[in-house]
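[INFO] parsing input record for Erythromycin esterase family protein
[DEBUG] input buffer:
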Amino acid sequence: MTRKLIAAIQEQSVPLQNGGLERLLDSIGEANIVMIGEASHGTSEFYKVRAELSKRLITEKGFTVIAVEGDWPSVQSVNQYVKGYGEEGSAARNVLLKSFNRWPTWMWANEEVEGFVEWLKTYNDGKRKEFKTGFYGIDMYSLYESIDEVLNFLSDNKKYEVDLELARKAFSCFEPYNRMPEHYALSTAHFTAECISEVSTLLTSLRKNEELYSTNHEEDLNVVMNAMVAKNAEAYYREMLQDDAISWNTRDMHMVEAINELIRYHGEGTKIIIWEHNTHIGDASATSMKDEGMINVGQLIREQYGKDNTYAVGFGTYKGTVIAADNWGEPTEIMEVPASKLSTWEGQMHAAGEEDKVLIFTEENRHLFNSTIGHRAIGVVYNPEFEAYGNYVPSEVGNRYDGFIYIDQSTALHPLKDEV
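[DEBUG] output buffer:
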């Protein structure tokens, strides 16, 4: 397999800096949903190249929505900024530092995102609102922040009294847990079905009454999305102590529901870019994840919208440095990413040539890249010494993605705060 795969990579790849993005854009064609991954949350080149590809999708192909692996309330502050709805005189750096204050802050409060956000604000300035590109969070860790958003909005608008009472009743379930989702998770065994269903009832009512809410600064979308987060986060935290696969699936199904809501809100045919880790956007059915009963965003989006209307771009690196931490919540550091073994996907990409490159997978050539091989994935928690035992996902890379961007030697992300 090794020699054949290396030869196929050499024959089919294009240098990233010499026509690589152009080949990707041509291959994307008329797809309305483009999912752009990353092999870690702490690699500068992944963020930079993803931003450059997104800029071209926006300016050359008319994409108007970016949905990212971040919490709705925090990312909504960025959306308000790039659309000109926020405070006058602010700057992307201040918005990012203020909005992303929960670990891992560096995922979004970094120099690479700052540069893109400033570009997007400049691009949007002077455009009519329907032609501005939005920046939205589709993750679900903001249980209490989203509860606050819904209650504050309804409390400030007394004409929505019916939904306010529903919200107060639904969210009373969470009050005893001192804003600690893990405490809620430990206590859910004692809850009644009524408490669980009340959050769903609230979301149903908000959607039913959505036409009553102001469209000013997307207030109507904001209240519905925060209620959706509360409903799905409740299920996620309830399940996270029971089964990893179930809670993973709940999270990714929430992100798909959020994507669908954004498309519904902006109109059928809306062109949307999705920024998430490879493990979310690379089709799970082409990996060992399926053996654990796990699904993901990439798989569900392909199934719902069809392969012709969707496009998934993966990332990978041979070696370098990365921002991560030894354990959840601990201080971050710049860590060495060791060189991949030859038997891995990244090792094969390196053996085919040390330049950064792009691969396009088509119906004609996918079979060349579909032997199962380990493909590196680094999270916010990382231990390089043990990565061979847990950081490689067996994958049929040609089926997992539609395109792949390879960075031979990568460097760590640049947090806005002095965390390293």
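[INFO] The chain has two domains: 2-139+271-410, 143-243.
[INFO] shutting down worker
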